[in-house]
Amino acid sequence: MLSQEETSKLKIGLEIHVQLTNLKTKLFCPCPSDYRGKKPNENVCPICLGLPGTLPQVNSKAIESAIAVCLAFKAKVQPYVAFSRKNYFYPDMNKNYQITQYDKAGGATIGIGGHVTISMDGERREIPFRRIQLEEDPGRLVHVEKGSVRKTYIDYNRAGIALVEVVTEPVMHQPKEARLVLEKIQTTLEHLGVLDPSFEGSMRCDANVSYAGGARIEIKNINSFREVEQALRFEELRLAYLPKLESNVTKRWGEKEGVTATSREKETEEDYRYFPEPDIPPILVDEKLVERIRRHLPELPDERLERFIRAYKLPEKLASILVMEKPVADFFEEALQFSNDPKEVAYWLTNEVVRRWRECDVDCRKSKFKPRNLAKLVNMVKEGALTPRMAKSVLWDVVLTGEDVEEYIERKGISIIRDPNMFKQVILKVLEEKPNLRENASKNERIIDFICGEVQKKLDGRADPIILRNEVKKLVEEED
Ligand SMILES: [Zn+2]
Question: How far apart are CA 441 and CA 313, in angstroms?
Fold first, then answer.
């Protein structure tokens, strides 16, 4: 770990590429955008293959979605938008240029500025954006290794898919901050309805890092937020403790190896020879269109957070965990149709259910466990039909199988124990095993708690906590 002073010398900026998964077709041609699971090079046409003599045609829905993205992040939508050509030679881009947007050389990106708000260590922070732009996704290289033979195939199904790129200012100082920014951008775009993050590779990120004003390192194409944080932690330490780099470099994050490796000297912007895209005339953005999109913006995470705090009286921390993932927030609100205790539902959802989903790598969008089932369980704990410990162990199974909580309990013959005589035997056994507990128990509530805990362990957490506690007190006082 770096000290606070060292951390403040670290500067992190992000370039986030998000596929507009709400679109049915690609950015400049009528090819379908659902390329996943398709045969290689099935969703292609002369336009997205970049054949000579073809003309790109801008998908107006992509422009509208990008305007919505700008408005969601409070970026200024430009009245005049122009595409640019970014020239480079690489097999995933068969035209040898990418149609993108650029804020210089005659180009104009769709959005300028904007920001995202995160809360870190109990404080809210605004991370400003430099620009928001619209561009086409390149094709996909597929590397195949059979024995000693290595081959690379190219699949152009992804070529031409509409991407929105968000470029942040390099103002983050900690890897964790970068992860929070990515999570917040993801949940905002999902609330907006333009991104389905469960689509593999729909949100990708390049990160640039510099330390104490030294050379800039760019880490390319990191797939998960956890990896972004790990890659940045690695660079943070390397930059602080190893000799300074001579020049800017581009690096690749090795997920398996857990290190970054230099892939090439970083290109400068001049290397790309940007110039205005001659095949697409500049677009004038109608102010009325922008206003119409603004009026139809759905509820976004920041507003939803405020509503959760206000309407359900949730603590801010709990409410922000819920809205960080739209499906989790949706699950929560659906469960409230069957329970009138928002705090308990939120607690059980974020602490137990989400934890179990993560542990087993379950996508909560596809979970068999339904909100009504969670509400049932929470109600049973409230009514005293289950102890919290029993409820946890029930959840452990049903979160994965989706079995009805009541049916599960009946099938397993699980029931709460309320018989004081049964408790008496177990309490006496605990006191026999640990004779020193007897001495001060009657004067010390914490020892009583401890004895209750020991009894619960022996009874698989099935003892009614109130009856058990009374029984422990009664016996301890008798002992005196
Ligand atoms: Zn096409």
Answer: 38
Instruction: Summarize pLDDT for 95-149 with one digit per residue, the tens.
Output: 889 999 988 777 789 999 999 999 888 888 999 999 999 999 999 988 898 888 9
Q: Looking at this protein, which amino acid is placed at residue 167?
A: V
**What residue ranges define each of the domains in the chain, with the CATH number in brackets?**
4-293 (no CATH), 299-412 (no CATH), 420-479 (1.10.10)
CA of 47 to the centre of ligand 1 (A): 5
Q: What's the CA-to-centroid distance between 95 and ligand 1, angstroms? A: 13
C-alpha 478/C-alpha 238 separation (Å) is: 65
C-alpha separations of 454 from 137, 423, 438, 458, 478 in Å: 59, 11, 14, 7, 19
CA of 32 to the centre of ligand 1 (A): 8
Q: How far apart are CA 25 and CA 18, in angstroms?
A: 15
Six token digits for residue 19: 């596929």
Query: Closest Cα partner for 13 from 178, 221, 243, 141?
Result: 178
How many A from CA of 403 to the centre of ligand 1? 45
What radius of gyration do the chain's Cα atoms show?
28
For residue 153, what are the β-bridge partners? 142
Calculate how far, in angstroms, residue 291's C-alpha sits from the geometric centre of ligand 1: 31
> How does pLDDT run across 242-296, given as a tens digit for each residue?
655 556 667 666 666 666 666 555 566 667 888 889 999 999 999 999 999 999 9
Give the residue carrying structure tokens 């059979």.
Answer: 146
Centre of ligand 1 from the C-alpha of residue 28, in Å: 7
Is the sign of the CA dihedral 350, 356, 361, 364 positive or negative?
A: negative
CA 281 to ligand 1 center in whole angstroms: 19
Find the 157 Cα to ligand 1 centroid distance in Å: 8
Structure tokens belonging to residue 424: 């008496």
Q: How many A from CA of 92 to the centre of ligand 1? A: 15
Q: What is the pLDDT of residue 251?
A: 67
Rounded distance, CA 235 to CA 245, Å? 12
What is the whole-number distance in angstroms between the Cα of residue 90 and the centre of ligand 1?
19
Strand partners, 87: 97
Distance between Cα 320 and ligand 1 center (Å): 40
* Tokens matching residue 2: 């770096």
